[in-house]
Amino acid sequence: MKKIFVVLVASVLCFAVVCGTVFFFNKSKSSANGKTETASHLTKKQNKTNKKVNKIEYKETKNTKDITNPEVISTNGIVVDLNTNTIVAKKNDKQVMCPASMTKILTVLVACEKVKNLDDKITITRDMIDFVYAHGCSTVGFVEGEQITVKDALYGTILPSGADAALALAKYVAGSHENFVKLMNKKLDEMGLSKTAHFTNCIGLYDDNHKCSMYDMAIILNNALNNKFCKKIISTHTYTTSKTPQHPDGCIISNWFLRRIEDKKMPGTVICAKTGFVNQSGSCAASYFESKDKKHKYICVTAGSNSSWRCIYDQVAIYNEFATK
């Protein structure tokens, strides 16, 4: 009897050990899986964040040239080889100044990253119209009470440099112009530009604290090119906005820099561009260029030219001198 009792106790103990081991193993496996899932989630989240933070740097090399061509009136400029992220040529490229309406490249980039439905409607308000006319801004021609699509606002911000469209985007994305500007400066910080670049409005109006360098703007444009829809907008020559009661046929708008430079003799094609002008910075432009064989890609940013046409010819001269033939 005693022998049977010992056997039973031993059996119970063995069973307990086995069950405990299985429980511990399963719990450990569960915990490990839990940690793996959490880590995986954080990695995905981190990757998502990293995609937004595109810290690009351009380096000078022993081959970097100064822009000295007397045909180039612009006082500031930079040419970047995107294949190597090196500075091909420069002229006062780190001088901080007002970027004028080149600002709207960042406006559209920030909006493109936030917008989910291009068909959403935005109502043009009296405050937007009053602001535009009080500051003498370029416009698409939208009127108070008109309901436009987000897509129209995006194209309207770039092609005719419409301040009415830019303000509509700001209100739609962030609830107010002020909040949208905070998003713009946050984006500048993500790009690593906050030490030299700071914006006070989404339009490009002159302000002592609305500033960046040609180098900074080349970084901003590069980031915009990495957003497919943003790049599409900046490369569009002509666009017709949606029909509304106020504009039954829509509004035909154009990127005049692209339309004017397309027939100029160069070793390739200007694909994307955004211009700007304020008295303090003269005529400005940021553009993206591809060689005829599509193998060589460049960004050129200039400021300080004496007219919109002269700004175009400045960039033609620069591309002809520095782009690969």
Automatic annotation (TrEMBL):
GO terms for biological process: cell wall organization; peptidoglycan biosynthetic process; proteolysis; regulation of cell shape. Keywords: Carboxypeptidase, Cell shape, Cell wall biogenesis/degradation, Hydrolase, Peptidoglycan synthesis, Protease, Signal. InterPro entries: Beta-lactam/transpept-like, Peptidase_S11, Peptidase_S11_N. Substrate binds at residue 274. Residues 67-287 form the Peptidase S11 D-alanyl-D-alanine carboxypeptidase A N-terminal domain. The active site is at residues 101, 104, 161. One of its GO terms (molecular function) is serine-type D-Ala-D-Ala carboxypeptidase activity. Belongs to the peptidase S11 family. PANTHER family: D-ALANYL-D-ALANINE CARBOXYPEPTIDASE (PTHR21581), TRAFFICKING PROTEIN PARTICLE COMPLEX SUBUNIT 12 (PTHR21581:SF6). This is D-alanyl-D-alanine carboxypeptidase (Penicillin-binding protein 5/6). The lineage of its organism: Bacteria, Bacillati, Bacillota, Clostridia, Lachnospirales.
